[in-house]
Amino acid sequence: MNTQIHDEALVLAASKGDLEAFNQLVLSYQNLAYHHAYSLMGDPASAEDVAQESFVKAFQALGSFRGGSFRSWLLRIVTNCAYDILRRSQRYPLQPLFPEDDDGEELESAPWLADPSASVQDAVEQAEFSEEIRGLMEQLPDAYRNVLTLVDIYQFDYSEAAQTLRVPIGTVKSRLARARLQMRDMLKGVLDDTSLLKTTNLLCS
Predict the structure, then answer these.
(1) Which of 76, 67, 74, 63 is nearest to 25 (CA)?
(2) Where does residue 55 rank: exposed (0-12), middle (13-18), buried (19+ CB within 10 A)?
(3) Torsion of CA 93, 64, 39, 174, to 10 degrees
(4) Phi and psi of 201, rounded to 5°?
(5) What letters, b where the CB count within 10 A reaches 16 and e where it falls short, cover 5-32?
(6) Mean pLDDT, the chain, integer
(7) The whole model's pTM is what?
(8) How far apart are CA 167 and CA 144, in angstroms?
(9) DSSP H helical ranges for 61-129
(10) What is the mean pLDDT of residues 32-46?
(11) What structural domains and CATH numbers belong to the chain?
């Protein structure tokens, strides 16, 4: 049984009152939920609060799950919980700055963007996702950090990331390309010359 079918079966059971089924979902995704919350909040205690609140809301909203990727559905709840807290504390900008066209729509592509197939995953793994790397990622705009975390760290495909973030696939690709460009520049101060060369080749290939 593949993961999606297994998750859907657990969700169905949990929605009928099977707490053990929901506990299995929690065990499967608690680390993912916490790390995603941490990438948004930048604080361990706040990330724990967001993750716990997200699972409570997920349990309460099981009836609204319509199939597909449970982890995307869950991370959307985590993201919404985190943003609610950040907005309340005025840490989350209501108007993120992205290039827009004449109609006020966010541009999904631009000629200067790096190849979306490039990845910083190898660089992150080599640095063992150190505190320095975490610090650099926290400097990215929220939307860039979110898409970089989903695609390059959690290995979401573009479609699943788009579903999680509720944006078009083209927007995922363009934000990811911009995020990778910024990370490539910031990584210059973290990685040695060999690693930097490898990372630069990945990001510019």
Answers:
(1) 74
(2) buried
(3) -70
(4) -65, -40
(5) eebbebbebbbeeeeebbebbbebbeeb
(6) 75
(7) 0.58
(8) 13
(9) 70-88, 121-126
(10) 85
(11) 3-88 (1.10.1740.10), 121-204 (1.10.10.10)
Segment 70-95 shows an average pLDDT of 76
- Token pair, residue 131, equals 């505190």
A 10 A CB-CB count for 64 gives: 9
Distance in angstroms (rounded) separating the CA atoms of residues 132 and 194: 18
The SS3 assignment for 181 reads: helix
CA angle 14, 17, 18 (to 5 degrees): 55
- 112-168 pLDDT, tens digit each: 344 444 444 554 444 444 566 677 788 888 888 888 888 887 788 898 888 888 889
pLDDT tens figures, 186-205: 877 655 544 544 444 444 33
Position 203 scores a pLDDT of 45
For 148-179, the three-class secondary structure string (H helix, E strand, C coil) is HHHHHHCCCCHHHHHHHHCCCHHHHHHHHHHH
CA angle 126, 154, 162 (to 5 degrees): 135
**Structure-token pair, residue 149:** 């975390």
The 3-state DSSP class for residue 17 equals coil
**Closest to 39 measured CA to CA, from 179, 160, 166:** 179
